[in-house]
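The following record pairs a protein chain with its ligand, flavin-adenine dinucleotide.
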Amino acid sequence: MDLALSPQDEAFRDEVRRFLDQNLSEDLREAGRKTAGVFAEFEAGQRWHKVLAKRGWSAPNWPKEYGGTGWSATQRYIFSRECTATDAPRIFAMGLRMVGPVIMKFGTPEQKAKYLPRIVAGDIVFCQGYSEPGSGSDLASLKTRAVVDGDDYVINGTKIWTTGAHVADHMFCLVRTSTEGKPQDGISFVLIDSMTTPGLSVKPIVTLAGDHEVNQVFFDNVRTPVANRIGPENAGWTVAKYLLEFERGGDAYTPNLHARLEDVRRIAREEAADGAGRLLGERGFAERLAEAEMEIQALEMIEMQVLSDLSKGKNPGTVSSQMKIRGSETLQKIDHLGVEALAWYAAPFEPEARLLGHNEPTVVPEAGLTAAPLYLNNRASTIYAGSNEIQRNIIAKAALGL
Ligand SMILES: Cc1cc2nc3c(=O)[nH]c(=O)nc-3n(C[C@H](O)[C@H](O)[C@H](O)COP(=O)(O)OP(=O)(O)OC[C@H]3O[C@@H](n4cnc5c(N)ncnc54)[C@H](O)[C@@H]3O)c2cc1C
């Protein structure tokens, strides 16, 4: 695929740059730089979402009829590259990336009208209730039970590792609606319209990096309308699998990888290696940087193809597993190089210094604030969205027919 930009694409890139110059304020950029996890600065991500929505740019991957941009694959990629290169804060995008495409495909007209415009506008925030204690890789074994009572489902059970359950106001959730037949055949996909629904409680889990991002969620007779089910009853497994393709492959990894690699290169240019000279001039280190860069470029080719398919309305398919493996493993390599480049500056643990508005002098350069948390947080990237071992199983079975 030819990645050289056409004059139209160059004009588009300039338009994006102008927009970022005018709208991405310094405090939003600071939040972007200081975010080590998925959303350390959730509020900044929300503000950025609203700014993009006002311009009509919050849903680059959605079709125009649902409030998307209608951009080509190249334009979406350019937009992503420009945003990561200028430290735009990450948006907690489970609505935009995951449940939105699912509602488009399986939702009723009423469900589309109710949820899609509010997701695009950034007015509602979803979290994902799939995993349970004992049901992660073996997701079909999930036990959280939903029983019909009048117009409602009554839900009992628990979900775990629920990212952002403490900041979200909606949840999409897999529940068991039948115990007959194969485990996959008794699952339904339901939406919960408020995280303060009576009987629903959220307990924090603080991660290795010191961040509160994930939670355990408990359901004690939680009611949600039967009308909130997406797709037919007991057909939730098909819906769930469709969503997972978007979770793994609905967006490009490489814009972030390019930006992170540039950060490491900058640090290596500034920091001294043992003895004389800059770290960037040290052969072993430079070789590993170059290797990481080649991996990013190879992945970029696959991603451009997938983005192009997505813009034609195709879903990613098993290539999303390939992208997930490559993207997460390359990210971990870059994190490793980042910690190594900063050496002892990566060691101090100053979580409060990463908060927006905290401008007290710290003992480390700004990159040192996030190097170790990024390294620690991204250990989970080969586990979440389906572990990489499971992705390899999917490739073996579905792509290679083994
Ligand atoms: C930071 C983080 C955020 C998360 N966010 C969410 C969220 O928002 N919503 C949500 O629903 N879930 C979330 N998860 C859960 C995530 O999807 C699961 O952790 C993941 O699917 C693995 O499941 P598990 O933790 O139960 O591990 P297990 O399934 O018990 O696996 C343990 C180990 O065994 C390996 N393994 C298991 N089965 C096989 C097999 N058949 N072949 C080869 N190896 C195998 C796995 O690869 C893994 O290394 C999150 C997890 C993390 C760490």
